[in-house]
Design goal:
It comes from Stutzerimonas azotifigens. With about 250 residues, this protein is an all-alpha fold. The chain has nine helices and no strands. α6 packs parallel to α9. It starts with a helix and ends in a 6-residue tail after the last helix.
């Protein structure tokens, strides 16, 4: 016979773990977004050095223009926000104003660029000369990082707009899985804890990886090429998890 005290302790531990997961979920999502932003900037800088040295920071600018034009032409209506294209332009303009204009970063970059290029043409190789060379070398990476950040914000808006797709896929998979579970419960189907635990463990990666992949892509692609297969896989994982859940509670 099972010990009631041990059963109660396990239930309390499970409830505490569930509560901790729910409370820490916003922080974990914030960590995923910050990590994706840093990774996208690193990929863009590496690509500037290895794959598109001729384009330089204009590659990041072209991605931003593509994302904005694509959002304006294809996302004309949404259940999350009204006028997604206009919202994206307002988001980018507001971020540009706060990051560059109100902080004075744009004026500082212009002044620093003018001061740094003046001694770079002199014959004397003093400390200012080497500082100017470092700034001239890093300036294009800073500009690329700024455009990559704005592109990241537009893609994040696209992901927010496509949240109903993932919720619908998960809901359909859960309903179909529960029906299959009832058929197995009232029939002679086998109960497999191995399949259940493996399918359950894949839910979080399938929900998070599409965000990381889409946010860090160094090229512009149609969002559905990444998000539609990801939503289908998430729905399949939810379906298998619900269908393989134990027959008797």
């Amino acid at each position: 016979m099972k010990d009631p005290a041990n059963t109660t302790q396990r239930q309390q531990a499970h409830q505490q773990g569930l509560l901790t997961s729910i409370v820490s979920l916003p922080l974990r999502m914030l960590g995923v977004l910050i990590g994706s932003l840093l990774l996208s900037i690193i990929i863009e800088c590496v690509g500037m050095h290895l794959f598109w040295p001729d384009l330089g920071w204009r590659h990041a600018q072209a991605m931003l223009d593509y994302e904005l034009n694509h959002l304006s032409s294809h996302f004309t209506r949404s259940a999350v926000v009204q006028e997604p294209g206009r919202t994206a332009h307002q988001l980018v303009e507001g971020a540009y104003e706060w990051i560059f204009e109100k902080t004075g970063l744009l004026d500082w970059m212009s002044q620093a660029s003018a001061r740094s290029r003046a001694p770079s043409q002199a014959d004397a190789r003093d400390l200012r000369f080497y500082i100017s060379q470092v700034y001239v070398w890093s300036e294009r990476y800073l500009i690329a990082a700024a455009f990559t950040t704005l592109t990241f914000m537009v893609r994040l808006l696209v992901l927010v707009l496509t949240l109903p797709l993932f919720l619908l896929a998960a809901f359909v998979g859960m309903v179909d899985g529960l029906v299959r579970r009832d058929i197995r419960k009232f029939g002679a189907g086998r109960e497999s804890g191995f399949i259940y635990h493996r399918a359950k463990a894949s839910l979080m990666p399938l929900a998070v990886l599409p965000w990381i992949i889409y946010l860090t892509l160094p090229v512009s692609v149609h969002p559905l090429l990444v998000l539609l297969p990801s939503a289908a896989l998430l729905g399949l994982a939810v379906n298998i998890t619900a269908a393989s859940f134990k027959k008797y509670l």
